[in-house]
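To assess whether the prediction recovers the assembly geometry, we first specified each molecular entity separately, as shown.
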Amino acid sequence: MLSLQSLSNPKPSSLYSSSFTPPKTLKPIPPFRPSRNFYPSIHSLLQYNRKPQLAGDTPRVVVITSGKGGVGKTTTTANIGLSLARLGFSIVAIDCDVGLRNLDLLLGLENRVNYTVVEVLNGDCRLDQALVRDKRWSNFELLCISKPRSKLPLGFGGKALVWLVDALKARDEGAPDFILIDCPAGIDAGFITAITPANEAVLVTTPDITSLRDADRVTGLLECDGIRDIKMMVNRVRTDMIKGEDMMSVLDVQEMLGLPLLGVIPEDSEVIRSTNRGYPLVLNKPPALAGLAFEQAAWRLVEQDSMETVMVEEEPKKRGFFSFFGR
Amino acid sequence: MAASIWSVQLHTVSAKAVELRSDYLLDCAFRGKRIVASAKNSKNVSEVVKSEKRSLPLLLQEAFTKLQESVKSLPPATLLVKRYSGVSLAIGISTIVTLLVIMVTSYVAKRSRRNRPPGSVADLVRRGQLRSDRRGISNPLKYDDPFNNPLVKVSKSNSTVEMCGKVYRLAPVTLTKEQQAVHQKRRSRAYQWKRPTLFLREGDSVPPDVDPDTIRWIPANHPFATTASEIDEDLAQTNVYQKHGVPFRIKAEHEALQRKLEALQCEQKLGKLVIDPGAAKDFESPFKTRLKMEEQLDQGPNNRQMGSKFSESESDRDSFVNKHSSEEMEKP
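The predicted structure of the complete assembly is given in tokenized form:
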């Protein structure tokens, strides 16, 4: 296993030697500056030899929203959250879906949620008791806002979430690097509550007109609320349908919404399998296509970066001399 | 390749051999006919036989020389074998070796799987006690970064990317800052919105000095329907900020219970002073004592006092529980 030591003494990658020009189109790769105090808050195992450079003030409070339901907000929260945890950042994911929470299921933590924010507000438990620590990546914690089928006494709107964020900042073990808020669908009280403490937003959409219309409206509301840093994530993209002109391309979506791209997630059957297993996609071995795309999006989120090129369509693979023997 | 060359060469050799053979046969047949014809024509058979006796060795010699010539014209077979044997031999050996290696590794893997020490975690997984995919911390991947690793490769011209074995064409993003600003303006015109700060249930009256735009009306069946009035806001805030110690409500409940117990004890202090022989065994077998007490109740009038005490305490307990639950109901 790699340890933190590899960060203090990183080996220059052969892929980034002087002869190799880094892929400019996908993402500009910042030069690596080795330093022992480079990431003071990192206290987990390293996944990569390189690490993304954390931009912005911590904790970064990111709301993941869409307007329309079923586009992949919770899946995105789970996968981005665990990707960030694997990159060594401490994460608190808050499931703000009051009546229909699902994030615990996606993470496989459904049996470990005993207390929620409602109990914290009532004084039945402390905040640290309501946080569910993931055993796979201990720097990932889940906080559910309420139990399913229960009513939330959140008459004072998003104030409770602001208190939560403040309390997390003042924790003994230090403030988390990211607070990810999984927003419920719609633009109702749940949405208003979820966006209250957020500084930035990730807008999840699919390349179809129904979710695009909702996404545009939600973006408008977020901008009215003062959240200016909004990036979009286009989910369930099918390159074969784009090629056949049966689906809008990502560039078309961007033209309609006018938002910078955080990531493009291809349609992948592994997403359903991982949901069934309660094991987020990014932990799959070998990594699936959508999992890789989520990892890339998480990297961009850390660096407050956006995509410069997008995958448009699938091309037939060029077959080499030895292709006869392999796939 | 080598095999095909081989087959072509052999084909030519056999073709020549066939040609030679047919020549020889034709020659023989022709000569045979000539013999028959001459036998028919000439009357002196002995002469014919004599002449044939002379010509037969000649014919054989001719055929032999022809054969020799044709054999000479062919490339020697050994040379052919020598020319291509090296390559084919290497391919054959490598194929066999690869197959052998695959077989051996699969056999070794299977054996090692079987020969694991009993009682390992693998056994727990096999028995369904543990889930293999959810054990401990997942292993970190050993690649450089998500943009450049064995699974994600960008072509040298930056026009394609290969992900998980599939090649995708890349297109540059065309969105400019100006376009983003235009979209923002469009949205700000289209969506005029103020974040609601006050949540009211449908049917509630609007408090004075409140902007009606900032009120959110919540239907009664909504999960947010129970509103602020049921939780004290300051108390909730202190609860959220509490870092150590017993949570507020647990503490309050505990204190209330203790107070009630104390009150009860004060009330029953005199009654408790009477030593009850049955109560001493309470810790040992509560079920038995209860039975005993019931028996005593039934048996004698002397023990009625005790029985009434028991029933009293029972009723007390019930009332306490009721009170407690009713208090809980009152509290949100």
